[in-house]
Design a protein that fits this description.
Distance between the termini: 11 Å
CATH class: Mainly Alpha
Number of domains: 1
CATH superfamily: MFS general substrate transporter like domains
Largest sheet: none
Helix content: over 70%
CATH topology: Growth Hormone, Chain: A
Order of helices and strands: HHHHHHHHHHHHHHHH
Number of helices: 16
CATH architecture: Up-down Bundle
Mean pLDDT: 81
Radius of gyration: 21 Å
Number of strands: 0
Structural class: mainly alpha
Length: 433
């Protein structure tokens, strides 16, 4: 295959740009508020929302490593990516049918779309080892995350006319239009990825049964080789801990800001704009920092930032303080997500990238299944979102302490030294130019 071009890197990053419309509008802002205020209105609304997040991520948790291994074996990561993209777009558009009181139906459609989004995120990330080198993986990963936040920002502008009237029954007709608009944004913005990005893995023609058996076999090989990839295992364990805190923030930030801090809908939109811009800045800035000081130290810096943010959120009721805190939270979101993806890329042999990013997705989705559920349960049991936020801060502290357990140079060396026991092949492909 020819060397990776900048055009391909931009096309790959456009998927981050496109799918951020889903996570920003559906998960973080509009549908979380629509569901907790109108669809499942009542004291158990947070718990229902947490259940929906948990259910979707449990499905991903069970299937991600196997699908990643099958995608690697078949050389069809791009086909898997397209299938999940189409399902997420369709599921998002179908949210138009969800009305107040449709709790189970609304959660079902959300689970379908969120599962598809999550698998797509994993398959897109699995291209990272093919289009980067150890010296630029941080910048390329950061570029994707940063561009993604601008996609989330533009998607917010796209739905602005429909949410101006607030999340009230009187504005129901406009609110239902948010979901088809978001789906259309995702549909169009992701097209460059499928038109330009190349699949560099060799394509194999076998039956579905063969791919499934091979996928389980590849996963079994990885499990048996856990000692070789022990730094990846350590990092994924730590990643699970701090991701419980991060995913809870993503799932409940709008609900917390509206209910506990008392932000109005215009103020919420302003808050999300600040978060998107700060997160983009964090992804770009810390992507460059990662290539200089390493991903482990970058993640530790981001976790210190998150511990400070959590303390400020729990102790303040002042909107001005909350806004300043939100800017630092945005920096923490962008830097933590980008550096984590970059470190997994650095620890992954190219030949096992789909599988390893499936494991990364497994750890992230396990955290997403647990973190928001814990937050929703503590909030419902204590009647205080501040108490839930305090519990949430402990996950960032555990993550910071756990990162001292990860040896980054050893993990990179293990990826380069990998040989597939099945055929003796080197796990690495030629580095992209």
């Amino acid at each position: 295959m020819p060397p990776v071009t900048r055009r391909e890197i931009v096309a790959w990053a456009m998927f981050d740009f496109a799918n951020s419309s889903y996570t920003t509008v559906v998960v973080t802002f509009a549908f979380s508020l629509y569901f907790t205020r109108l669809v499942a209105a009542g004291p158990a609304a947070d718990l229902w929302w947490g259940r929906g997040i948990t259910a979707s991520n449990l499905i991903v948790l069970l299937l991600a490593p196997i699908l990643g291994a099958i995608a690697d074996d078949s050389g069809r990561k791009k086909s898997f990516l397209f299938a999940t993209y189409a399902l997420c777009v369709a599921g998002t558009a179908a949210l138009w049918f969800v009305r107040p009181g449709d709790v189970i139906f609304g959660l079902l459609l959300f689970v379908v779309s969120n599962v598809a989004f999550s698998f797509g995120e994993n398959f897109a990330a699995a291209f990272l080892p093919e289009i980067s080198t150890p010296s630029n993986v941080g910048r390329i990963s950061g570029f994707g995350w940063g561009l993604g936040y601008f996609g989330g920002l533009l998607s917010l502008f796209a739905i602005l006319p429909f949410v101006r009237g607030g999340f009230e029954l009187e504005n129901l007709a406009d609110l239902r239009r948010v979901w088809p608009v978001t789906a259309l944004f995702f549909l169009v913005a992701a097209l460059p990825t499928f038109l330009i990005l190349r699949e560099r893995a060799p394509r194999r023609q076998h039956s579905l049964a063969h791919y499934a058996a091979s996928g389980f076999g590849r996963l079994g090989t990885t499990i048996r080789s856990a000692r070789h990839f022990r730094q990846l295992v350590r990092f994924l364990t730590v990643f699970f801990c701090f991701s419980m805190g991060l995913t809870s923030i993503i799932a409940f930030v709008s609900v917390y800001a509206a209910r506990t801090i008392g932000l109005s809908i215009p103020e919420l939109l302003g808050l999300l704009l600040v978060l998107q811009l700060a997160s983009a800045g964090g992804a770009f800035l810390f992507g460059a920092i990662q290539d200089r000081i390493g991903a482990r130290r970058t993640i530790q810096i981001a976790l210190v930032l998150w511990i400070a943010v959590s303390a400020a959120v729990v102790t303040t009721s002042d909107k001005r303080v909350f806004w300043v805190t939100a800017m630092f939270a945005g920096l923490g979101i962008g830097s933590l997500q980008s550096a984590s993806r970059g470190l997994v890329g650095a620890f992954s042999p190219v030949a096992k990238s789909g599988e390893f990013f499936g494991l990364w997705g497994l750890a992230g989705k396990a955290a997403y299944a647990c973190g928001p559920l814990v937050f929703g349960w503590v909030s419902a049991m204590t009647g205080s979102q501040r108490t839930a936020a305090l519990v949430n801060a402990a996950f960032f502290l555990l993550g910071f302490l756990g990162m001292s357990w990860v040896d980054e140079p050893a993990g990179v060396a293990a990826a380069h030294a990998w040989r597939d026991p099945a055929n003796g092949a080197d796990g690495d492909a030629p580095a992209p130019a």
